[in-house]
From TrEMBL:
One of its GO terms (molecular function) is metal ion binding. This is Fumarylacetoacetate (FAA) hydrolase. It comes from Alteromonas naphthalenivorans. Keywords: Hydrolase, Metal-binding. InterPro entries: Fumarylacetoacetase-like_C (IPR011234), Fumarylacetoacetase_C_sf (IPR036663).
Length: 232
């Protein structure tokens, strides 16, 4: 069949699993918006969990870049931001999953950076347009090796932090997530049949800000380790 393709088929996007040569094939990337109260506030928005539900945007799997990479400053932006996040890796198919059963669908966890062209995102928000240009672009989803849940246990508490050139910018706790991991999986699975290989970036705490060429970003999540990125 391959000789009937108009152009070569794109290679499957893969990411590392810690302490093994086995690789995790990435299927889709879902990102939760405004999932910490303090970050929502710094974006000029308040979130009332009794009245609101989670919302999502997506990134194409080809935007995945491994921790430790050096990437170029992206085009068409003058306000390029980091967002440090807990990433959940889905390990089996599920639809309309209950919060009680959500943990059964988790393969593992990773540190993630949701890199954002903030000026383009805010411009889209002001004009009631999608965030795609601000969020879904090349080299915008950084990920550390996935730590299997079988090794680290369930990750629902712990410190999450980020520094730029050694200066702490984000310093919070996973327990401050507005919608925790189980709630996110249960809600998202009402709209999608979750599949093995899906990644969920669960949201960022307060302290987001710009980086420029030459900056080095380092983040960490308790029990999961570190993530690093250098801007060329």
């Amino acid at each position: 069949m391959t000789d009937k393709l108009l152009f070569p088929e794109k290679q499957q996007i893969l990411t590392a699993i810690k302490n093994t040569d086995t690789l995790f094939p990435v299927h889709r990337i879902f990102c939760v918006g405004r999932n910490y109260h303090a970050h929502a506030a710094e974006m000029g928005v308040s979130v009332d969990k009794t009245k609101n539900v989670p919302f999502y945007f997506t990134k194409h799997p080809s935007s995945i870049i491994p921790s430790g990479s050096t990437i170029k400053y992206p085009p068409q932006t003058n306000n390029y931001h980091y967002e440090m996040e807990l990433v959940v890796a889905i390990g089996k198919e599920g639809f309309e999953i209950t919060e009680k059963d959500a943990e059964d669908y988790i393969f593992g966890y990773a540190c993630g950076l949701d890199m954002t062209r903030r000026d383009l995102q805010l411009k889209a928000r002001e004009t009631n347009r999608p965030w795609d240009l601000g969020k879904d672009f090349e080299e915008s989803a950084i990920i550390s090796p996935i730590v299997p849940k079988a090794e680290c246990g369930v990750i629902d508490t712990g410190k999450i932090s980020l520094s730029v050139n050694g200066d702490i910018k984000q310093d919070s706790e996973l327990k401050k997530l507005i919608w925790n991991v189980n709630e996110v999986i249960a809600h998202l699975s009402k709209f999608y049949h979750l599949q093995p290989g899906d990644l969920i970036y669960t949201g960022t705490p307060e302290g987001v800000g710009p980086v420029v060429s030459g900056d080095k970003i380092e983040g960490a999540i308790e029990k999961l380790g570190n993530i690093e990125l250098t801007i060329k």
